[in-house]
């Protein structure tokens, strides 16, 4: 999946992946996609809920070698 920006949140504990995601999303235009890499296991539930509550779309997510990867489209 192609993304417009990449956020490396590996090694950050809750709530920092959400805080950094929110800041990065403010730099994107509607319809652009942010790719997030995180290692905090709580990030899956947190980012899913945050995207929904903020009117964004969690396009897809996967786990690869212990790294959680998310693609969120700005709403």
TrEMBL record:
<dbReference type="Pfam" id="PF01206">
    <property type="entry name" value="TusA"/>
</dbReference>
<comment type="similarity">
    <text>Belongs to the sulfur carrier protein TusA family.</text>
</comment>
<protein>
    <submittedName>
        <fullName>SirA-like domain-containing protein</fullName>
    </submittedName>
</protein>
<feature type="domain" description="UPF0033">
    <location>
        <begin position="7"/>
        <end position="31"/>
    </location>
</feature>
<dbReference type="InterPro" id="IPR036868">
    <property type="entry name" value="TusA-like_sf"/>
</dbReference>
<dbReference type="InterPro" id="IPR001455">
    <property type="entry name" value="TusA-like"/>
</dbReference>
